[in-house]
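Data availability (excerpt). The following record was deposited with the supplementary files.
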Amino acid sequence: MIKIQEGCDQVCAYCIVPTVRGRERSIPTEEIVEEVRRLISSGAREVVLTGTQLGSYGFDLDGQNLSSMIEAVLDETDIDRLRVSSLQPLEIMDGLLELWSSAGADRLCPHFHVPLQAGSDRVLSTMRRRYTGEEYLKSLERVRTAITGAAITTDVIAGFPGETDDEFQQTVELVTEANYADVHIFPYSSRPGTSAAHFDDHLDPSLVAERAARLREIGTVSFAAFRRGLVGSASRVLWERDEPSVGLTDSYVRTRLVSGRQTGRARMNSIEEVALTGFDGKVMLAEPLMIGPDF
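Predicted structure:
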């Protein structure tokens, strides 16, 4: 993982990051390229670009932005896989997405983590999020139109202060409609130093827990549906360990090898093309597409 940007200027009502990490600042592209080269020399096959607000990368650097930085990493290094850790909905523009089919074809991972936090426009506004539910869904549609089979994951906060039953239902409906590959649910908890900590309409903890459980149920269904839809397809897996061989596809789906030269065995830190043959409720099951020295 390489941190390309630090800090945050958005000051969401529930978040302490701007206080503890300060204003947004970008790491110069040349330093990122050099770090990627260093990691490659030590054996890295995949690099994950991390930060708090990746879409604003380069605003404080002359002539640099997220797209140009990604292009530089792809052009100036031999990294096999490059993953963007998280993007805000309104940061997902067509020009950025074009990289997945041009300079980043077969190297940029088709996995997009796009935080939602809530499905109600009023709650989003109170949180100080900078989009509506409709704008959010349009961003997901933009991704899926540009990149076939893209995996989209998200974060959702359950039980934000003042959230009504109807507003919670709007979140339920949006999370259901979005068909995520995975959903991370966070029961709202007060953080000293945030503006939300001073709101006077905090919900009962038992109601917050109940809403979080409901959203997790939807997420579990979505998680399984996305993976069942992959059965019968081919994917490239970066194996993280042996015996059994377990790794991640480029779409961030954990996968286990179930047959080969030795059952469940592949070379750790290799990238192998496999057939996704099943889903056991937790991970995808795979078989090698080609019998070679690694199998």
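Summary of structural features: The first strand starts at residue 2 and ends at 3.
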